[in-house]
Amino acid sequence: MGDAIAVHGLTKQYGDLTAVNSIDFTVPEGKVFAFLGPNGAGKTTTVEILEGLRRRTSGDVKVLGLDPWTDGLELHRKIGVIPQDFRFFEKTTPREAIQYYATLFNVKVDASALLELVALGDKAHANFDVLSGGQKQKLGLALSLVASPTICFLDEPTTGLDPQARRGIWDVIRKLRREGRTVFLTTHYLEEAELLADQVAIINHGTIIAEGSPTQIIRDHGRPERLSVDGPPSLGEFLKKRLDRAVTVTEGHVEVQMRDKSDALVVLQAIESSGLPWTGFATVSDTLEDVFVGLVGKMDDGVLGGAPKP
Amino acid sequence: MNPKRIGADFLVFSRGFVRNPVGLFFSLVFPIILIGLFGLIFSASSSTTVTVYTENLDHNSPLSVDFLSALNNSTYVHIQVVSPVTGQTFASWLAQQGDSVGMIVPAGFQANYTNQTPVNVTLYTDPSDASSGGIAQFVVTGVANSFNLASSHGSPIIGTTNQQVGSQVFKYIDYLVPGLIGFSILTSPMFALVEISSTYRKDHLFRQLSLTPLTKGEWLTAKILWYIVLTIISAAIMIAVGVFVFGADVGFTVGLLPFLVLGPFFFVSLGMLAGSVSRTPESAAVLGNIITFPMMFLSGTFFPVSSFPPGLQAVAHILPLYYVIDGMNQVMLFHNNTRALLDLGVILIGGVVVFVAAIAAFKWRDE
Lengths: 310, 367
Ligand SMILES: Nc1ncnc2c1ncn2[C@@H]1O[C@H](COP(=O)(O)OP(=O)(O)OP(=O)(O)O)[C@@H](O)[C@H]1O
Ligand SMILES: [Mg+2]
Description:
The complex is a heterodimer of chains A (310) and B (367). The termini of chain A are far apart. Chain A has helices spanning 43-50, 72-75, 94-105, 111-117, 133-145, 163-178, 190-196, 214-221, 233-242, 263-273, 288-299, and strands spanning 3-14, 17-28, 32-36, 58-63, 79-82, 151-155, 182-186, 199-204, 207-212, 226-230, 247-250, 253-257, 279-284. Helices cover 35% and strands 26% of the residues of chain A. Among the domains of chain A are: 3-78 and 149-220, P-loop containing nucleotide triphosphate hydrolases (Rossmann fold, 3-Layer(aba) Sandwich), CATH 3.40.50; 223-284, Alpha-Beta Plaits. Chain A is built from 11 helices and 13 strands. Chain A is of the alpha/beta class and 310 residues long. The radius of gyration of chain A is 24 Å and the shape is elongated. The radius of gyration of chain B is 26 Å and the shape is elongated. Chain B has 2 domains: 3-42 and 171-361, no CATH class; 61-163, no CATH class. Chain B has 15 helices and 4 strands. Chain B is mainly α. In chain B, helix 3 (62-73) links the parallel strand 1 (50-56) and strand 2. The chains are: A alpha/beta (310), B mainly alpha (367). Chain A binds chain B through residues 48, 51-55, 72-73, 76-77, 79, 81, 83, 85-92, 96-97, 99-101, 103-106, 127, and chain B through 4-5, 7-9, 11-13, 15-17, 19-20, 203-205, 207-208, 210-214, 365-367. Bound molecules: adenosine-5'-triphosphate (ATP) and magnesium ion. Adenosine-5'-triphosphate binds next to strand 2 and helix 1 of chain A.
């Protein structure tokens, strides 16, 4: 299996601003790739370059072997796109929109089934301008699927959706993957990426700062697993002296970093030997979100509540 | 150009148009209101018969009476015989009357006519009321000609006048119908496309369309087709109102169709071009108005260009809408097909240029 997307040294400048700074990544065929990053990191810019909607400043980009900018017309028959701020003709209904796309792409499509797939069946005959934000988003997804694309580019497809609808979209993404399609996804919901993505890249200020499968990224960039108990701050002080391990204390809550799984026994023994009152223990490990906040926070250090950069 | 894709885009666009009451109102109801308004204003003030105050100094000789009744028979003028004015000139007396057309039949009119000696009927007209003066002039000249003809051939004096005169004179409403059809061929596509070009850009709809196999040319063609349909419908309505409500003497001839097709072709393209070369919606609107407003008034929409002073006539000849309206006048009123074909040629060539320029100028995608 080859790469659906290959990017080398991609740079995009808006005037003086370097929105994307010489990034490299590849997306294997048939995988779900999640592209993560804080607001303004350069996600949409990158996606739009891959979709052939925006011209790159420099670098080498191949999508299905095509140059997205110069071979746009050919590429657009093979990819499906939901832009971040999807809009459509105000006085057109979802069903009409799907039929319109079907004719443009010269494909036969079961409009009702497609609308059911994105849970928009009940709004098949409502004009676009009266759809809710989430319903508009769902129509965007439906339209991106009309031509059975090889790659789906979904720029924040679940932003603004209710929890149920988000799960609906997840099911659609899983289905696309089962059908062997490649999905390029951006999202601010880290658990979504952790759940769906085979591959993740995190971009910040136009530079990729972490890349790999979610577990790989957590292993490479996360803290070790921790054992946590509820107890007084004095327990924390006791453990700091007793154990040669990182200890954090927060409001009646003590966390001790473990060296490995069996380390739990050593830590528990130390807690018990303190003679101080303690309850309930659990092991805690980093989620992708913890890693993300850690990585992005490190770079923008001070942005989240601390002192601003000098 | 793929007809299926053009058809699909036409369908979506026309549905959107019909579902938007404001757009529909301006495209179909507004022209009717315009023709109603102008028809009422102008047919009331310069009612189709022009009153001509006449001094008959030939003492009601039989020939002068025949001459005046021939004029009356034309139905375009009403001869109001007045007793000879004393104490001031006829012209200044005439100026005091509201109406400004007068005529003097000289003494010896019949005698001179019988002797075949030249004799002049004097017509008084006011340049500020050119249309009344023009009508009177046409009718009097026509009747005088037929009298001259009758005299030289020795055949009956009265009889052919009505026909000769009638085919030459047009009422204001006759000019108004093609003028206002031209007005809506100009305004409704221009304003719509300038607006569309900026809102589609703002809402990223061009970007959305660029992700489909639809091409810019197909998209613009679908817009042109829709405005052709709209133009034909509104032209039919305006002609019907003109003919049945205001008695306009125009027909919905086949010769009109090329103008109803090429007119929207030109102005849809021009509107898109104006919207595309502008960076912001505001500057697009300004540019659209700069292009539209002079044409709205100077192309023969509300008044025939032939009634303009020569300087303005020259200006009119560089305005594209002039050729649309002039062409429609040629087929609807003057039945001058050669001139109409010439006008069509100008619009066609201009239209192709603007269409190609518009497609080159507007961008599907961001740089
Ligand atoms: N057309 C543009 N002209 C100038 N600057 C732009 C343009 N589009 C984006 N930018 C800038 O480029 C940077 C990256 O923007 P981009 O939209 O790619 O971010 P993003 O990662 O998608 O953010 P978000 O999560 O908020 O969607 C931002 O600083 C933005 O202000
Ligand atoms: Mg974005």
